Amino acid sequence: MGDINDLRRKRKAAADDMQARADALTALGDQDDATDEAIAGAEAAFEAAQTAFGKADKDVKRAEAVEAAQAASALPEPGAEEEPAGQGSAAVAAMAKEPGLRFGAMLRTLAAAGGSVREARAIAEENGQSGLFAAGQNMGTGEAGGFLVPEDVGSEVIELLRPASVVTAMGPRFIPMPNGNFTQNRRATGADFGYGDETDDAPATGMTFGQLKLSAKKLRGIVPISNDLLRSASTAVDRMVRDDAIEDAAQIQDRYFLRGTGTEFAPKGLRWQAVGTSWEASHILDANGTVNLQNVDNDLGKLELALANANVPYSGAHWVMSPRVAMFLTNLRDGNGNKVYPEMADGMLRRKRVHVTTEIPDNLGGDGDESEIGLVAPRQVAVGEHMGVNIAMSGDAAYRDAQGTLQSSFSRDETLMRLIMQHDIGLRHIPAVAWLKAVTWGA
């Protein structure tokens, strides 16, 4: 095993190469005349760089785990006072080998302390995790204002959230918004070119521009945590608390990123981005009311054609659909009993990735039996991120459960965790999303 700093430098070089390959792929995807072969080659180069980074990252984490183990098992110098077993920052350093584990421990400890960072630090020290909260870190922050998770820990949470969320798992562009806002010009129509005699006037340019505007919207969620869990200081509990927070946040994020109608305080989802634009008629389509194999295939093709006609390469697009529709396509058979889309078993449809989520409803339409399907070119999707992760705890507040019934956390012996993140979503190129409505498949 090499020096840990050398390994980290190799990982940084691999990350830079991965970024360069991603930029090259993005630039190629933005070219109207890019061939499928060129895009496939760029995608293969990016995947190779991603694999190289994964190996370098594993090497670093392995070295860090060894370093943490050495620190945890180190003996005191002769004559020095021995630290109680399990105490100090070594136990916290060992958490680095599993992303988000420190976040789970922070949540559990803050909940046990009623949201007070000062008391949480004391509890962490008693549990052998004295390095969990850095000295001087948000000392005055209590239950009301919340606790801003340190940047390194918050980054781990966001990285775990991305694959858990359907939209961010597609691989959109992530844009930091330090000031909470981001504005970028986007090309709406192309320039007017034409052939002619050298003495003829050149056509007047017809290029027009729109704007992509992102402004931080506050995503808030409340997760009830059983106090029986909080009384147990264990890695298993930390994982459970971490996973509950990430899964719940991902679900609500998808709800708005996919179908949010857009307000001053909430993002406009991909479903509604084309509404009110010149692309609405060509990119928001109705499924054929007669459900049969040929019509289903035609409807899927209509979405691909909508992207292709707008010069958006659809070979790298992703499908998004409800579980009912996904199951229908998985089970669909032809007249000989053969599955029409056998690749659905591998999460693919017509050579494109499929994402299944309950945030695409099955009860739309007048009869309550309609669903929708989206086809998204993720390279044209922009997700702006502001701030980090803010958490607050309360053992006395009330909340409404899934049925809308008001529950008391005190009487149920629970502690409520409120998690806040700020972000927004938009499209660099409006026709990069095609949407199929009135889908009754499987109803």
What would you note in describing this structure?
The protein has two domains: 1-71; 99-191 and 206-443, phage-related protein like fold (Alpha-Beta Complex), CATH 3.90.1690. The chain is α+β, with helices and mostly antiparallel strands and 443 residues long. The protein contains twelve helices and 15 strands. The longest helix has 38 residues, at 36-73. The protein has a six-stranded mixed β-sheet. The chain is globular and about 80 Å long. Strand 12 (398-400) and strand 13 (406-408) form a beta hairpin. Residues 75-88 and 135-144 have low confidence and may be disordered. It has helices at 4-29, 36-73, 90-93, 101-112, 117-126, 151-164, 166-169, 227-230, 235-259, 280-283, 293-309, 323-331, and strands spanning 147-148, 173-176, 181-189, 208-215, 217-226, 284-286, 318-321, 348-349, 352-356, 371-376, 381-394, 398-400, 406-408, 414-427, 433-439. The chain is 38% helix and 21% strand.
Quick recap:
The chain has 443 residues and is an alpha+beta fold. The chain has 12 helices and 15 strands.
Blueprint (SSEs and pairs):
Elements: H1 4-29, H2 36-73, H3 90-93, H4 101-112, H5 117-126, E1 147-148, H6 151-164, H7 166-169, E2 173-176, E3 181-189, E4 208-215, E5 217-226, H8 227-230, H9 235-259, H10 280-283, E6 284-286, H11 293-309, E7 318-321, H12 323-331, E8 348-349, E9 352-356, E10 371-376, E11 381-394, E12 398-400, E13 406-408, E14 414-427, E15 433-439
Parallel strand pairs: 2-11, 6-15, 7-9
Antiparallel strand pairs: 1-11, 3-4, 5-14, 7-10, 8-9, 10-15, 11-14, 12-13
